[in-house]
Amino acid sequence: SECRRRRGYCVCNLLLLHNRLKFITCQDTSLGWTYHYSKDKLNWTEAREWCRKYYTDMLVIQNQEENDYVVSILPNQTKSPYYWIGITRNHINGTWTWIGNNSTWVGEHSWAPNEPNNNDITEFCVEIYVNSGANRGKWNDEKCGSKKFPVCYEAQCNATSCDRGRCQETIENTTCICEPGFKGDRCQTVVECDKDKITVPSNGSVECTHQYGNFSYNSSCQYSCEEGYRLSMSRPLTCTASTKWSDQPPTCKSVECPSLLQPDNGNYSCSGRNRTFNTTCRFDCHPGFLMIGSPAVTCGVTGVWSGPRPTCAKMTSLFFSGYKQALLAVAGCGALSTFCCICCCWMKRRKSQCYSITLHRKSDARQCYFNRPQ
Ligand SMILES: [Ca+2]
């Protein structure tokens, strides 16, 4: 049979499973969780097993709206209007916790008046009233061994629900919450950036790599410059989740060496105006000055001159500087000669002493044998 529900269009079917167990399923035609219940009463543990066998699990209520909705689609039970729901606690002081997601939501008006009262000391399971009375939709803690109608849910999200996102279930819908960089109802489409923004710079080139698709999220474009040119920004351009490139394209600027200072008492001139790569600057000294150092420097590919700037020294200061050095050299030679003379004299004197000693002492004669005259 078919019937209309307050929310959406529901199809109610009477099914026979294993030729034994009758149950009713009310399936919302829209996506999202569907709710199901048994016409047979079971204790809480059996009820959960039944839910897990035929559906996903026992009902987990996530908010008041869902609580009200589930009550609205369940048929009123006149004699025993109680359905098990998937919230329990382990001991008398335990926290009421939903199975499956471990949520502890209990709302502000969920419990019936004076509940939970743990009336039988071990009321660790929860039933929901589905009747036309004042307690409709309220909860009561109850002994888990009591028999009630199971109410279950069946999840619609599965591993393939969303390509690049997380499947989120609500009462009547499933939504794919997409990862950054993806869009579409199943997050199946990667976002793209404007490929025309990737321009090739003068004196340079660009190379792009693509992770998900051409000029799409996470595509990366690395720029490079010809020799003698330098990038205005070295990091690559990346396509972001907002469909914008991470930066403006860089440019290639000429490598430039630092300014050269004019040497004291000299000049220089360069082959180019801007001290760019391969520019050579030549130095001259004014008349009467002598250049010390290399007469030319060249701007290298890294923006560094090939050597230090030369200096221009006055001839006379060079002469005096040379004279002092010569004087020092002469004095050094004299000292060395004096030392050598002293050494020679001492050796000669020792030779003669040795010879005279051998005349008297035989043991010393062996040491001085080669010095003894024939
Ligand atoms: Ca109770």
From TrEMBL:
<dbReference type="InterPro" id="IPR001304">
    <property type="entry name" value="C-type_lectin-like"/>
</dbReference>
<dbReference type="Pfam" id="PF00084">
    <property type="entry name" value="Sushi"/>
</dbReference>
<keyword id="KW-0732">Signal</keyword>
<dbReference type="InterPro" id="IPR035976">
    <property type="entry name" value="Sushi/SCR/CCP_sf"/>
</dbReference>
<feature type="domain" description="Sushi">
    <location>
        <begin position="191"/>
        <end position="254"/>
    </location>
</feature>
<feature type="domain" description="EGF-like">
    <location>
        <begin position="153"/>
        <end position="188"/>
    </location>
</feature>
<dbReference type="InterPro" id="IPR016186">
    <property type="entry name" value="C-type_lectin-like/link_sf"/>
</dbReference>
<dbReference type="InterPro" id="IPR000436">
    <property type="entry name" value="Sushi_SCR_CCP_dom"/>
</dbReference>
<dbReference type="GO" id="GO:0030246">
    <property type="term" value="F:carbohydrate binding"/>
</dbReference>
<keyword id="KW-0325">Glycoprotein</keyword>
<dbReference type="GO" id="GO:0005886">
    <property type="term" value="C:plasma membrane"/>
</dbReference>
<feature type="disulfide bond">
    <location>
        <begin position="157"/>
        <end position="167"/>
    </location>
</feature>
<feature type="domain" description="C-type lectin">
    <location>
        <begin position="30"/>
        <end position="153"/>
    </location>
</feature>
<dbReference type="GO" id="GO:0007155">
    <property type="term" value="P:cell adhesion"/>
</dbReference>
<dbReference type="GO" id="GO:0046872">
    <property type="term" value="F:metal ion binding"/>
</dbReference>
<feature type="disulfide bond">
    <location>
        <begin position="285"/>
        <end position="312"/>
    </location>
</feature>
<keyword id="KW-0130">Cell adhesion</keyword>
<protein>
    <submittedName>
        <fullName>Uncharacterized protein</fullName>
    </submittedName>
</protein>
<keyword id="KW-0106">Calcium</keyword>
<keyword id="KW-1003">Cell membrane</keyword>
<keyword id="KW-0812">Transmembrane</keyword>
<dbReference type="Pfam" id="PF00059">
    <property type="entry name" value="Lectin_C"/>
</dbReference>
<dbReference type="InterPro" id="IPR002396">
    <property type="entry name" value="Selectin_superfamily"/>
</dbReference>
<feature type="domain" description="Sushi">
    <location>
        <begin position="255"/>
        <end position="314"/>
    </location>
</feature>
<keyword id="KW-0768">Sushi</keyword>
<feature type="transmembrane region" description="Helical">
    <location>
        <begin position="326"/>
        <end position="347"/>
    </location>
</feature>
<keyword id="KW-0472">Membrane</keyword>
<keyword id="KW-0479">Metal-binding</keyword>
<dbReference type="InterPro" id="IPR016187">
    <property type="entry name" value="CTDL_fold"/>
</dbReference>
<keyword id="KW-1133">Transmembrane helix</keyword>
<dbReference type="InterPro" id="IPR000742">
    <property type="entry name" value="EGF"/>
</dbReference>
<comment type="similarity">
    <text>Belongs to the selectin/LECAM family.</text>
</comment>
<keyword id="KW-0430">Lectin</keyword>
<feature type="disulfide bond">
    <location>
        <begin position="178"/>
        <end position="187"/>
    </location>
</feature>
<keyword id="KW-0245">EGF-like domain</keyword>
<keyword id="KW-1015">Disulfide bond</keyword>
<keyword id="KW-0677">Repeat</keyword>
<feature type="disulfide bond">
    <location>
        <begin position="225"/>
        <end position="252"/>
    </location>
</feature>
<dbReference type="InterPro" id="IPR050350">
    <property type="entry name" value="Compl-Cell_Adhes-Reg"/>
</dbReference>
